[in-house]
Amino acid sequence: MTTQPFLPDPSLYNEDLAPIPQEKRDWTWLNMATVWMGMVHNIVVYEAAAGLMAIGFSAWQCLEIVAVAYVVLFLAMGLNARAGTRYGIPFCVLIRSAFGPSGAQLPVILRGFCAIFWFSVQAYAATQAVDAIAGTIWPVWKTAAAGVLGMPLHRWGALVVVWLLHAWIMNHGVTRIRNFELIAGPLVIVIGALATVWALKVGHGPGPLFAVPGRLHGWNFALAFAGGVTGMIGMWATFAVNIPDLSRFVRSQRDQVIGQAIGLPVTALVFTPMAIITTSATVLLFGRAIWNPVDLLLTLDKPLVTVLGGGVIVLATLSVNVVANIMPACYDLINLSPEKLNFHRASFLVLGIGLLFAPWLWFSEAESIYRVLDIISGLLGPVTGIMLADYFILRARHLDVPDLYRRDGCYAASNGWNPAAIAAFLLGGFCANLGLVWPRAVWIGHLSWFVGLAVAAGLYLEFSRWTALGRKPRQV
Predict the structure, then answer these.
(1) pLDDT digits over 208-248, tens only?
(2) The pTM is what?
(3) Which domains does the chain have, with CATH numbers?
(4) SS in 3 state form for the chain?
């Protein structure tokens, strides 16, 4: 056990990045479960089944893909969350163990960029809902149609409302986030269940989409199934990396495992059939599948339904954004400048940067959004692999926490950069995205997250053995 005094480097430490003492970790399994409930039922996940069914899968096969993907995510996140729960440290601090205090900025910036981008896109989805609500209550709202920077004034007004709602929730830090998710997560599930009951009544059963057989067979089915699983994982690849940002608040390993088990695979398997059944009702009512919830509300043309349904969409978007995007992005920004930023300042900085992404311009290029984010997810798979290999194999689940906040400690590597992690990350990311530059390897894209994780983990352990920079720290 180390006897050195805890004298952290100011460029690596502040109160928001500091380890949370055990007595202050007050999240239970219920908090962890409701946080995940608030994240799983968002518009992107709702529409994901549409993409799978468009490829040629049946509704039941979609559920199988969701089940496999979320079980894999549960295992990866459950393992990656353990260090956060044990030591009370966030992702941006934990990653220093593998990459070094300076090298850690590479995956932190990548994760932060992706988080802010996703926040911006999700927030604009909520903006559309607020715009629909306002236009329903005050028809004059839509008359402000003059365009400014590619968006009408009435949509700008809705965007301001959504950004202010995010700011209100973030204004009081993690405590308000926890309390908000405790209400928002279960509430959206309940409302989704009511929508499903309505859909079952309209369709006199599960509906037409459950009756459509799959169109894929043999090798094509296997490749597409693997691609579907990888795609579902890709939506959460960012969170598989920074799950310690949440697990650091949980009081025990048992709580974080039970909470994630209930909130992740179980909620996903409940929510996905809701989306499919509700969409089935639109086939019967309108002759076509309407997967976008905002479009469905406007098509129903019932003012009360539009207002209440739009409110649910906004609530669901807020619940996923504050935890999955704003919160990790705040820690990532704080890590870049802990002497100048705290959680409160960083949260408003995230809101400002998110606005600069101009999500209303990207929505007309949805394929470009997901192509870019797929590449980033392919790069985050290697980060997950390196983190797991470092903590469970190289460090044998023991970290010298004070040295994570020093530039001259046992994680300093070569002037703050660990070449083993950097090389493994770059090579793992290249292998995961090899199909983009070599057509014969396009099949790798169906397994990109798995390939990146496995290659990077293996190379990291081997490179660490060569460089002898992977020595175990003093056990604490």
Answers:
(1) 877 878 888 888 898 888 888 888 887 788 888 999 999 99
(2) 0.85
(3) 19-467 (1.10.4160.10)
(4) CCCCCCCCCHHHCCCCCCCCCHHHCCECHHHHHHHHHHHHCCHHHHHHHHHHHHHCCCHHHHHHHHHHHHHHHHHHHHHHCHHHHHHCCCHHHHCHHHHCCCCCHHHHHHHHHHHHHHHHHHHHHHHHHHHHHHHHHCHHHHHCCCEECCEEHHHHHHHHHHHHHHHHHHCCHHHHHHHHHHHHHHHHHHHHHHHHHHHHHHHCCCCHHHHCCCCCCHHHHHHHHHHHHHHHHHHCHHHHHHCHHHHCCECCHHHHHHHHHHHHHHHHHHHHHHHHHHHHHHHHHHCCCCCCHHHHHHHHCCHHHHHHHHHHHHHHHHHHHHHHHHHHHHHHHHHHCCCCCCHHHHHHHHHHHHHHCCHHHHHHHHHHHHHHHHHHHHHHHHHHHHHHHHHHHHCCCCCCHHHHHCCCCCCCCECCECHHHHHHHHHHHHHHCHHHCCHHHHHHHHHHHHHHHHHHHHHHHHHHHHHCCCCCCCCC
